[in-house]
């Protein structure tokens, strides 16, 4: 697009930015209130509610559970996605399209339906309310994200590299380890990060399968908000927002957030 | 060049295929079966196979009202994201470095923030003692707080905020493929800014808007966290009703039937809109 933004466009843009940032900023500001109720910190900021948060064992233990769940699930998802992506991108075989649709289908199923399905299924196989059960369900919903980024990486590789390695006497496994894997490593890493974030933030499905003893942070927050909204939940949210902003800056530096989310022009050239 | 069929691709596919069949298709099939079963507090879930739950949902106006409300909220949310998101995508596209990068982070970054935190932000803004009401009252524009929490209006606003990035991504993806010279060509042929936008730019944005609309509608119709926080217990949508049936009423078969119907509606609407869009664009570019 070569056009320029005129006055009205910039005015519209300003209103848009306020709309986007207002709810996020309000949460962060309210979290610093010294009062015992929801209010702006007009008498100066206080860390009182962040202290309360550190002493709240429920929130701290759910935070740890979320970190563990996200790490295990994203790693398993990447381990599943690498061979699948290679099969789909590099090979032609019966059932290839079906496999791709199957692995991408969790994006199409509403989370609430998955929550219901896993609640019943996991309790039937005796994994209800366990970490294993949570990991299984999270691996299913985050694998599409890793699969997509790895497939993009593989698709942009020149397959002549494989032939070159083979002609130099490298066997398939060595070529994979020494040539392909290092080249798709950035794709695996960015997919892992997207998968981790999606696991860490997931609430709709997880609220069905978490148990009182094992709950993720967003679910704990959700259940707390259902009862009451006080500055403590604003403090939890502020921590989540700060973590998200950090992740955003790191992702942007490493891969370019626009490239990860909107897709590169390189991908279009291949078509 | 793709390798010819050998055992290797099958071996590579086995882990994913097994995991997705066992842990995705089986649970979904189980839910479908569960939705046919019968429940009472005295007997629990009975393994019968009948359509009683679906008949109950279709014959009770209580459920109809909730389906209608869910559809209303999803439609308005989709419209708001189109009206705000599509122009904003165009504006972002036209920005130069470094502003483009900065405001892309502002527009898309919220995707990385928990939907619970974002909805909480809207609860703080929209509440009776919330920032918007306090600001309006201190300016003397209103005397009493406007009720925005626990209303469809509030849910639509908060949900539009949550789903806006998806519309912007969809439209920007389409805009990225365009040749910028087309706009210049239009100007050099004597078209004004408005004509250029209406006749040249907007038609090119439509496929992106359509993709975004399908995505936003599907997510808005099945959203849980935002309606639960902003709508509260009084303003039920399908997703929050399913949650109640499962965790409070314990009528799992009825909850499963509601979830399956929601799933079916979302799929049918998405496929339907997709067909309409494809037909339209096929005619347009013939």
TrEMBL record, chain A:
It is found in: Cell inner membrane; Cell membrane. Its main location: membrane. It is a multi-pass membrane protein. One of its GO terms (cellular component) is plasma membrane. CDD domains: TM_PBP2. It holds the Pfam family BPD_transp_1. Keywords: Cell inner membrane, Cell membrane, Membrane, Transmembrane, Transmembrane helix, Transport. The chain crosses the membrane at residues 7-32, 63-86, 98-119, 125-147, 179-197, 203-225, 232-251. Coiled coil: none annotated. The keyword Transmembrane helix applies. One of its GO terms (biological process) is transmembrane transport. It comes from the Bacteria. Residues 63-251 form the ABC transmembrane type-1 domain. PANTHER family: INNER MEMBRANE ABC TRANSPORTER PERMEASE PROTEIN YDCV. Belongs to the binding-protein-dependent transport system permease family. This is ABC transporter permease.
From TrEMBL, chain B:
It is a multi-pass membrane protein. Its main location: membrane. GO terms for cellular component: plasma membrane. It is found in: Cell membrane. It comes from the Bacteria. The keyword Transport applies. CDD domains: TM_PBP2 (cd06261). The chain crosses the membrane at residues 12-34, 66-85, 97-116, 122-141, 153-173, 185-202, 209-230, 250-273. Residues 67-273 form the ABC transmembrane type-1 domain. InterPro entries: MetI-like, MetI-like_sf. GO terms for biological process: transmembrane transport. Keywords: Cell membrane, Membrane, Transmembrane, Transmembrane helix, Transport. Belongs to the binding-protein-dependent transport system permease family. CysTW subfamily. This is ABC transporter permease.
């Amino acid at each position: 697009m070569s056009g320029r933004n005129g006055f009205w466009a910039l005015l519209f843009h300003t209103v848009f930015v306020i709309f986007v940032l207002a709810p996020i900023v309000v949460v962060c500001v309210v979290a610093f209130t010294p009062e015992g109720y929801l209010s702006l910190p007009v008498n100066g900021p206080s860390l009182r509610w962040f202290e309360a948060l550190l002493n709240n064992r429920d929130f701290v233990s759910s935070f740890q559970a979320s970190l563990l769940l996200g790490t295990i699930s994203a790693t398993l998802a990447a381990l599943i996605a690498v061979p699948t992506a290679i099969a789909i991108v590099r090979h032609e075989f019966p059932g290839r399209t079906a496999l791709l649709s199957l692995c991408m289908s969790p994006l199409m199923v509403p989370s609430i339906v998955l929550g219901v399905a896993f609640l019943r299924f996991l309790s039937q196989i005796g994994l209800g309310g366990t970490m294993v059960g949570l990991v299984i369900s999270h691996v299913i919903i985050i694998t599409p994200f890793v699969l997509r980024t790895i497939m993009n990486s593989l698709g942009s590789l020149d397959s002549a590299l494989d032939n070159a390695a083979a002609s130099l006497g490298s066997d398939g496994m060595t070529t994979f380890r020494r040539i392909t894997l290092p080249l798709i490593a950035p794709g695996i890493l960015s997919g892992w990060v997207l998968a981790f974030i999606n696991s860490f933030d997931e609430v709709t499905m997880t609220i069905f399968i978490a148990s009182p003893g094992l709950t993720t942070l967003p679910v704990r927050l959700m259940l707390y908000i259902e009862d009451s909204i006080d500055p403590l939940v604003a403090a939890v949210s502020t921590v989540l927002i700060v973590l998200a902003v950090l992740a955003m800056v790191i992702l942007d530096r490493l891969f370019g957030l626009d490239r990860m989310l909107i897709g590169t022009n390189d991908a279009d050239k291949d078509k | 060049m793709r390798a010819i069929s050998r055992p290797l691709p099958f071996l590579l596919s086995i882990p994913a295929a097994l995991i997705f069949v066992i842990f995705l298709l089986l649970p979904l099939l189980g839910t479908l079966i569960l939705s046919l079963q019968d429940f009472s507090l005295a007997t629990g879930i009975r393994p019968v196979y009948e359509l009683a739950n679906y008949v109950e949902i279709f014959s009770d106006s209580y459920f109809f009202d909730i389906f209608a409300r869910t559809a209303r909220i999803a439609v308005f949310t989709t419209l708001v994201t189109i009206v705000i998101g599509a122009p904003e995508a165009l504006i972002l596209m036209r920005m130069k470095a470094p502003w483009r990068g900065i405001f892309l982070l502002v527009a898309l970054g919220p995707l990385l923030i928990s939907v619970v935190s974002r909805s909480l932000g809207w609860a703080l803004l929209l509440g009776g003692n919330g920032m918007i009401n306090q600001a309006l009252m201190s300016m003397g524009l209103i005397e009493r707080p406007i009720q925005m929490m626990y209303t469809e209006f509030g849910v639509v606003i908060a949900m539009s905020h949550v789903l806006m990035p998806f519309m912007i991504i969809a439209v920007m993806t389409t805009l990225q493929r365009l040749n910028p010279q087309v706009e210049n060509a239009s100007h050099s042929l004597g078209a004004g800014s408005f004509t250029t936008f209406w006749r040249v730019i907007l038609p090119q944005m439509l496929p992106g808007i359509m993709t975004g609309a399908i995505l936003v509608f599907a997510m808005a119709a099945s959203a849980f966290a935002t309606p639960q926080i902003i709508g509260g217990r009084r303003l039920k949508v399908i997703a929050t009703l399913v949650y109640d049936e499962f965790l409070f009423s314990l009528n799992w078969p009825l909850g499963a039937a509601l979830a399956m119907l929601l799933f079916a509606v979302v799929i049918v609407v998405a496929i339907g809109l997709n067909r309409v869009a494809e037909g339209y664009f096929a005619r347009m570019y013939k």
